[in-house]
């Protein structure tokens, strides 16, 4: 069954150990922020620092593993038709829109959509880690300068993760203009046995 996350919104759900999560970009050029917590201890969650250290690359794709803050394997990328994602930047939030876009009025954000989806499990706003930003294109040049570019995902591109533990997942259709080439599209996901 394919679930759909409407533009600029988020959902939460559980994924059992040794099952699969497929995330689809139905219209192309749309980022999905993914956070994951150990279902049995919510103080264990995905860590970009541990993952980039162990995988020795900032660009993760098929064969790479996402590790927790306790160095456990959480998710393994087993299929990836897009091939370009980001694990450097934290979820967009109200301050992102103020600092980068000079928007002061209320703006939807991944951080808010993540914690509002996850609060029924006891996750607070400050417990939202740096997300694995599915389909997000962030370039780093040889001076270290970072650029957020339009996603390379074409309509129908997808990524499949294998869960290495029982997980609580938060997933969004990202709300940031620059990350999504200035138009907001849905994201789809499927839980596979
Ligand atoms: Zn976002």
Question: Can you offer a commentary on this structure?
Answer:
This protein has 193 residues and is mainly beta. The protein has 3 helices and 13 strands. It has helices spanning 48-55, 94-101, 110-118; strands spanning 2-5, 10-15, 20-25, 32-38, 41-45, 65-67, 73-80, 132-134, 137-140, 146-149, 157-163, 167-172, 187-192. The strands form 3 sheets. It has a 6-stranded antiparallel beta sheet. Strands 2, 4, 5, 8 and 12 form a 5-stranded antiparallel beta sheet that branches. A two-stranded antiparallel ribbon has the order 9-10. The longest helix is centred in the middle third of the chain and has 9 residues, at 110-118. The protein is globular. The model has no long low-confidence stretch (mean pLDDT 97). It binds zinc ion.
Write the layout of secondary structure elements.
Elements: E1 2-5, E2 10-15, E3 20-25, E4 32-38, E5 41-45, H1 48-55, E6 65-67, E7 73-80, H2 94-101, H3 110-118, E8 132-134, E9 137-140, E10 146-149, E11 157-163, E12 167-172, E13 187-192
Antiparallel strand pairs: 1-13, 2-12, 3-11, 3-13, 4-5, 4-8, 4-12, 6-7, 7-11, 9-10
The chain binds zinc ion (ZN).
Q: Unreliable segments (pLDDT under 50, ≥5 consecutive)?
A: none
The end-to-end distance, rounded to whole angstroms, is 11 Å
Structural class: mainly beta
Radius of gyration: 15 Å
Summarize the structure.
By secondary structure, the protein is mostly beta strands. The chain has three helices and 13 strands. It is globular and about 40 Å long.
């Amino acid at each position: 069954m394919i679930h759909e996350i409407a533009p600029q919104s988020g959902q939460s759900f559980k994924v059992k150990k040794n099952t699969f999560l497929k995330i689809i970009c139905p219209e192309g050029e749309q980022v999905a922020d993914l956070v994951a917590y150990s279902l049995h201890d919510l103080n264990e969650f995905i860590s970009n620092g541990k993952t980039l250290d162990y995988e020795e690359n900032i660009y993760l794709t098929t064969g790479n593993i996402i590790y927790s803050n306790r160095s456990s394997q959480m998710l393994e990328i087993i299929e990836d038709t897009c091939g370009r994602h980001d694990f450097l930047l934290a979820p967009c939030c109200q301050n992102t829109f103020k600092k980068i876009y000079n928007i002061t009025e209320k703006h939807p954000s991944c951080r808010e959509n993540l914690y509002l989806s996850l609060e029924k499990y006891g996750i607070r706003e400050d417990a939202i880690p740096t997300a694995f930003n599915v389909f997000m294109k962030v370039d780093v040049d040889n001076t270290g300068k970072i650029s957020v570019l339009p996603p390379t995902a074409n309509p129908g591109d997808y990524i499949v993760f294998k869960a290495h533990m029982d997980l609580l997942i938060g997933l969004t259709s990202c709300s940031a203009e620059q990350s999504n080439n200035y138009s907001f599209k849905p994201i789809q996901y499927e839980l596979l046995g």
